[in-house]
Design goal:
By secondary structure, the chain is mainly beta. It is built from 2 helices and 10 strands, in the order H-E-E-E-E-E-E-E-H-E-E-E. Strand 5 and strand 6 (about 115-140) form a beta hairpin. The chain starts with a helix and ends with a strand.
């Protein structure tokens, strides 16, 4: 992650502000509507909301052990997609960036037993189709670089939902992977910053962005050893995305 932040920092400040414009990226700034594609590296996790009595001995009817802690564990993934950018005026663009995101999120459960500590790691597997609609505010161009901030909302749906339904039909209670379920679709907020770097024939834009689901995404009606101590789960992610326009 340090290398990613360093790359973004260099992209922001690695060019002289006093030099003359060198590249036009194919005169992209004169186009009302332009397109591109994106590649991303993502780190997904959960914000965990626990029941008040989650650590009370005997509070979980599915386990005789006492739960000490529930910790979200970050997991790396990747994304790829397309970009449609509509120029509103000199400083504002409207961006639609549909993409496929492949991220697994994990939860670590720490139980206390009479003789030792027991740690269980549960993985929530997802393949998301994300449909973000974002507003981009751009600074004045300095040399071949223009800085920007971006924010908006996205609709997220799990394209593995049909497979999950098939899995439910053949449910095996000993299969821990099926004990944590999230809603098939939800809304999330996104905000971040980036830099447009103008090259001779195209524009390259590294971007760092955070996202957080607006509502609890844990599926209701699922009560088992893993979900009983939970009051809610919120999906969060750190996205490092490279746009090519």
């Amino acid at each position: 992650m340090k290398h990613i932040l360093l790359f973004v920092f260099l992209a922001f400040f690695g060019y002289s502000a006093n030099a003359q414009f060198l590249n036009t990226a194919g005169d992209i700034d004169h186009e009302r509507l332009n397109f591109g594609f994106l590649l991303g590296i993502d780190r997904g996790s959960f914000t965990v909301v626990k029941q008040r009595d989650f650590s009370t001995p005997g509070s979980n009817p599915f386990s005789p052990d006492t739960l000490q802690a529930i910790k979200p564990m970050g997991s790396m993934g990747f994304s790829l997609g397309l970009l449609a950018n509509l120029k509103l005026n000199r400083h504002f663009d409207l961006r639609f960036t549909p993409k496929f995101s492949f991220i697994d999120r994990q939860l670590e459960y720490q139980y206390n037993k009479a003789s030792d500590n027991k740690i269980l790691l549960k993985t929530v597997e997802s393949t998301f189709l994300e449909l973000p609609l974002l507003l981009k505010f751009k600074s004045e161009r300095q040399n071949d670089v223009r800085l920007y901030v971006v924010g908006g909302v996205k609709f997220v749906t799990d394209i593995r939902s049909k497979k999950k339904k098939a899995d439910d039909i053949s449910y095996n209670p000993d299969d821990d992977r099926k004990l944590v379920k999230i809603n098939n679709s939800f809304l999330a907020l996104e905000a971040g910053l980036g830099a447009d770097i103008y090259l001779e024939y195209f524009k390259f834009s590294p971007e760092l962005k955070l996202s957080h689901s607006m509502n609890n995404i844990m599926k209701s009606g699922e009560d088992n050893i893993i979900t009983h101590p939970l009051a809610g789960l919120f999906a969060e992610a750190l996205h490092f995305t490279m746009y090519f326009e």
